[in-house]
Amino acid sequence: MERRKFTREFKVEAVKLIQERRVTVAQAARDLGVHGTVLRRWVRESTADAQQAFPGQGQMKPEPAELARLRREVLTLKAERDILQKAAAYFAKEAL
Question: Fold for domain 1-57?
Answer without folding.
Answer: Arc Repressor Mutant, subunit A (1.10.10)
